[in-house]
Amino acid sequence: MFRRHSNKSELISEINPYSPVAESFRALRTHIQYAQEKPQHVQVITVTSSIPKEGKTTIAVNLAITYARDQKRVLLIDADLHRPRIHHIFDSNPANGLSQILLKECQWGEAIRKTHIPNLHFIVAGTIPKHPAELLSSDHFDELLEELKQHYDIILFDVPPALVLTDAKLVSAKSDGVILVARAEKTKSHMILKTKIQLEQIKNNVLGVVLNQKRERNRLVLNGYY
Length: 226
Hints:
Helix content: 25-40%
Distance between the termini: 39 Å
Number of helices: 10
Order of helices and strands: HHEHEHHHEEHHEHEHEE
Structural class: alpha/beta
Number of strands: 8
Strand order of the largest sheet: 3-4-2-5-1-6-7-8
């Protein structure tokens, strides 16, 4: 269990649920549902970016909170096995996480962490392994995901930047949809386009782009592609 209000700036949907930013996350949840021509059930979502420091982890955490407040059973998984951050946000012990599950050093039920937010659980990345991509491409990862899908309505993966490491592509290929995060006035449009093309080449369902830290309104926008 994490200590309440441990990282206020990154838990805005929980700290101030009536703020414009929290409302933007609710709009994001709705956009995900209707991002396709024919609305479909999206259960497993991967959140990634093109390059580091675009705010993807903050987006993943607040989107998880938003789904949980919508009475969905939500599991947030830190699948960034290089530079994990979710344990920092929730002020939680970084040990005994996803890497230990995939290495068969613990059962997934032992790695689940509860939050004080009803319906929201999370799994930290765990000890940084030598070969993260091999773990994420293993049959054991596939088996784990199928089992988790029986217990949760929404599963959110926070993964490394897609242009930096192959891990993002490995996880997103197993997801129902992918959200790309871009930082206003930092991320170049050609990076987003390149990331989109690479993900779609391996048949990923790219749902759209979240424009993060937009100055004039301080809001999030799921606005399609650059």
